[in-house]
């Protein structure tokens, strides 16, 4: 657009009023200033936009064509201003969250429930995916916040811890008794047992694999599973020994439905929390961070 926006605004108001005097009152500027702006616009466009008479001004065919487009443009601007005002009045925004399915179900949902009760007008989008993908999207500015295990080397990310989690191995008493019956009471569980782990694309799996390597534990039979929920359910039906997050099976451990396999050295705990880019100034994110604190 080569012309000054103010010239189009003056043209727009004069066309609506059909009178330069009325437009001057609407715009709080003098009639000569309006006439000068219209003349300059006509000179720049090399067309006549109005015919003038003692009764006022009327659009020429060229003026009507321009007015149709200018009217649409200013309507769009008005709608934009109204939307911004509505966002400010109702605290409307868009919060984009990345989280694994496991953390979403067991940790994020309670936070979201309370947050939505306080801020019902904020739009929330949830990307269910692996932690590595969430961190990558945070760094690419395509997510606002991610619920993840504390990232170790990711510059620019801030982290709000929520809770510590402990990875453990569990199975049913029934499975353990049958394994010892078959392999002998002194059998090594990791050598003889059916060990169930998350697939190798999962950050939890990497954490567990590092533990196994550090402690020189070799697994002979591994069943890979895509979700923590399936690991827990498979363990409950005595399919094998599952590596799960202790906090997610606390009820099963207390009831005796599952039992924890003792380890010579426990798996290192991990801290779960909300990660976000420090420079992100989105209002919805600010509101969510204030809610967390």
Key terms for this structure?
293 residues, alpha/beta, 5-stranded mixed β-sheet, 49% helix
Describe this entry's structure for a reader.
This protein is an alpha/beta fold and 293 residues long. The protein has twelve helices and twelve strands. The chain has helices spanning 5-17, 20-27, 31-45, 61-90, 101-118, 131-139, 173-183, 189-192, 203-214, 228-236, 250-255, 283-292, and strands at residues 50-53, 56-59, 94-99, 123-128, 145-149, 157-165, 167-171, 195-198, 222-225, 241-245, 259-260, 270-277. Helix 1 crosses helix 2 (20-27), helix 1 (5-17) crosses helix 3 (31-45) and helix 1 (5-17) packs across helix 4. The protein is rod-shaped, with a radius of gyration of 33 Å. The two termini are 47 Å apart.
Task: Explain the layout of strands and helices.
Blueprint: H1 5-17, H2 20-27, H3 31-45, E1 50-53, E2 56-59, H4 61-90, E3 94-99, H5 101-118, E4 123-128, H6 131-139, E5 145-149, E6 157-165, E7 167-171, H7 173-183, H8 189-192, E8 195-198, H9 203-214, E9 222-225, H10 228-236, E10 241-245, H11 250-255, E11 259-260, E12 270-277, H12 283-292
Parallel strand pairs: 3-4, 3-5, 8-9, 8-10
Antiparallel strand pairs: 1-2, 5-12, 6-12, 7-10, 7-11
Helix pairs in contact: 1-2, 1-3, 1-4
């Amino acid at each position: 657009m080569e012309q000054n926006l103010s010239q189009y605004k003056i043209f727009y108001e004069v066309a609506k009023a059909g009178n330069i005097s009325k437009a001057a009152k609407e715009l709080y500027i003098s009639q000569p200033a309006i006439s000068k702006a219209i003349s300059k616009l006509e000179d720049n466009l090399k067309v006549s936009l109005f015919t003038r008479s003692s009764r006022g001004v009327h659009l020429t065919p060229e003026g009507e064509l321009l007015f149709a487009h200018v009217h649409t443009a200013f309507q769009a601007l008005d709608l934009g201003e109204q939307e911004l005002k509505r966002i400010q009045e109702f605290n409307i925004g868009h919060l984009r969250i990345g989280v694994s399915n496991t953390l979403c179900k067991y940790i994020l949902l309670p936070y979201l429930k309370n947050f939505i009760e306080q801020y019902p007008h904020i739009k929330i989008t949830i990307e269910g995916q692996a932690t590595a993908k969430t961190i990558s999207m945070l760094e690419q500015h395509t997510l606002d916040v991610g619920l993840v295990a504390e990232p170790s080397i990711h510059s620019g990310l801030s982290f709000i811890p929520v809770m510590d989690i402990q990875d453990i191995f569990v199975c049913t008493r029934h499975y353990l008794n049958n394994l010892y019956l078959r392999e002998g009471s002194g059998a090594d569980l990791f050598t003889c047992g059916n060990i169930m782990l998350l697939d190798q694309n999962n950050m939890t799996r990497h954490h567990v694999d590092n533990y196994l390597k550090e402690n020189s534990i070799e697994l002979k039979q591994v069943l890979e599973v895509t979700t923590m929920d399936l690991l827990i359910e498979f363990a409950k039906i005595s399919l094998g020994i599952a590596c799960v997050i202790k906090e997610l099976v606390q009820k099963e451990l207390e009831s005796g439905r599952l039992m924890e396999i003792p380890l010579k050295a426990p798996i290192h705990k991990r801290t779960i929390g909300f990660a976000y880019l420090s420079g992100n100034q989105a209002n919805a994110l600010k509101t969510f961070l204030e809610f967390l604190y």
